[in-house]
Design goal:
Blueprint lengths: L12 H21 L7 H15 L15 E5 L6 E4 L3 E5 H7 L3 H16 L2 H25 L9 H14 L4 H17 L6 H11 L15 H25 L1
Parallel strand pairs: 1-3
Antiparallel strand pairs: 2-3
The structure holds zinc ion.
The site of zinc ion has 6 residues, from helix 4 and helix 7.
């Protein structure tokens, strides 16, 4: 289930990768200080083993992603949230698992969806847009002429805060969400997770009402459309799921 769309990817991949790495590292250390990082070993184990099965399939979509330095962590936080920063830096909030009472298949659906955002470089795309909005084209030109690897060394704190600022500044577009739904669904099926769970996941998400971060706002895209589209896609990936199941 390929997707085709021209993308606004002006910030160099290495620049974005660097900022994301710094921002993710800073998130981990601040969670560590608050004692909210990976506090439940059982939950962490579960999230990591599901994620690792999904990550084992990413090469189907882009070969370079198999070599990314993937990281998977769980933050104790009541919010319904999960994300994957550029380069494969995954964070799942405990609230998502607990409030949705998510099954393994449903967790695979949401993590697969987040991984798909990273595979399709939606973060880099949003960060490029946010960068131009916030700092203008001149600043962008400066980044481009200095090359991609300028965010490093003693500028790392700045890179970290700029990275999260840009990553979280804009919500994913409807088109980006649609792409991630398609790719995430196939990823989960190939990893042997029941694709049907994507439907129950979004139904549960919808039932949670309004207190969601931008990634999961029910209005973006309209959840009914999303669920209808997923219903049409499930039969397409079902054979991949069945094949994967026989190999387990
Ligand atoms: Zn999304």
């Amino acid at each position: 289930m390929g997707v085709r769309r021209s993308q606004f990817l002006l910030l160099p991949a290495s620049y974005v990768g660097n900022m994301s790495k710094q921002a993710y590292g800073q998130t981990l250390s601040s969670a560590q200080k608050k004692q909210t990082l990976n506090v439940d070993p059982g939950m962490l184990n579960r999230v990591r083993s599901i994620s690792n099965r999904l990550i084992a399939q990413v090469g189907v979509f882009r070969t370079d992603a198999a070599q990314w330095q993937w990281e998977v962590n769980v933050e104790k936080n009541e919010q319904l949230n999960a994300y994957c920063m550029p380069g494969g830096k995954i964070m799942v909030y405990s609230g998502l698992i607990e409030k949705l009472n998510a099954t393994d298949d449903e967790l695979a659906a949401v993590i697969g969806h987040e991984i798909a955002h990273a595979l399709r470089e939606h973060g880099r795309e949003r960060m490029s847009q946010a960068f131009v909005q916030q700092f203008g084209l001149q600043a962008l030109a400066a980044v481009l002429t200095r090359g991609g690897s300028t965010v490093a060394g003693n500028a790392s704190m700045q890179a970290a805060s700029m990275g999260s600022q840009l990553f979280f500044a804009l919500p994913n577009s409807r088109e980006q969400e649609r792409e991630s739904d398609r790719i995430g669904l196939e990823l989960a099926a190939r990893a042997g997770f029941n694709p049907q769970a994507a439907i129950t996941l979004w139904q549960k998400m919808e039932a949670q009402g309004g207190s969601k971060p931008p990634e999961f706002l029910s209005t973006h895209p309209a959840n009914e459309n999303r669920i209808n589209e997923l219903r049409q896609l499930v039969p397409i990936v079902q054979p991949l799921y069945e094949t994967a199941k026989t190999k387990q």
